[in-house]
Amino acid sequence: MFIHHTNIEIGIGDNLRILPGTYVETADIPLGKSVVLEGSGQDVTIIQGAVNQTLQVFRTNVFRHLTVNGGFAWSPVVLDHVTSNGTFFAYGALTVLDSKVNGHASAMGLLTVRGSEVNGSVNAYAAYLANSIVDTTINPAAGAFSAIQVINGSSPGNTYPAATLIQNVQTSGAATYGLAGTQGVRIIVRGSTLAGVNDGIWSPSTANVLDVRDSTLVGAVASIEMPTTTAAALTLVNTQLAGPVVIGGPAKLLNCYDAAINAIPNQ
Predict the structure, then answer these.
(1) In whole angstroms, what is the distance from residue 177 CA to residue 265 CA?
(2) Residue 118: how many CB atoms within 10 A of its CB?
(3) pTM of the full predicted structure?
(4) Residues 6+ apart with CB under 8 A from 157
(5) Which of 39, 85, 206, 240 is the most exposed place for a label (fewest CB within 10 A)?
């Protein structure tokens, strides 16, 4: 196993099953190891890092059916039916499936979140990749910058960033922005409710492209705010805009309505 205090050794590709229990260990997976670590259930298998340490991952690893203290990954990692009681940050790709993260979920590589609950913020730092957040509830802390942040759309040799998909996502509205897209991003929103204290969507970059359909955007300052974005492209279709609309660039509005269900003129 990966726990240094034991004499059990692992090899690349091992699939390890952990019996029910709370394990207080130094939770490091050694460099060069790639394993599937499977617990007996999120409520009964708990990896409690010594002195509240988080899990540290150096190779591609998969964690299933257990609880950890959060984690820090230098390479791709998959959380499948995992409870992370703390922030999980990946320098590589991070995949969160049917899990609960009680903290932030962030990735410098490809970010995939599906069927999960995040009690913190979700941050995609590589918007030139096809990130996706689907069937997920996001509850950021009060006063947080945003529930979802998508940044760094430009990458060397990649003039046109891939689109980040946000589908059937609910944000609680406690953060300043429900969705913040910066630095030249392409974002597709479908069937979601994005709420923020100030804005449902805040998109200040002059190179952002947003396509929002069948959704609800809620904010006291603006349901959607794209100021001075002369090069931006915005499409809003069948969407409730519960708050002022602040748009400074090209936009297409079709079958949209305000908080009182009054139709907003198409344009």
Answers:
(1) 25
(2) 27
(3) 0.87
(4) none
(5) 206
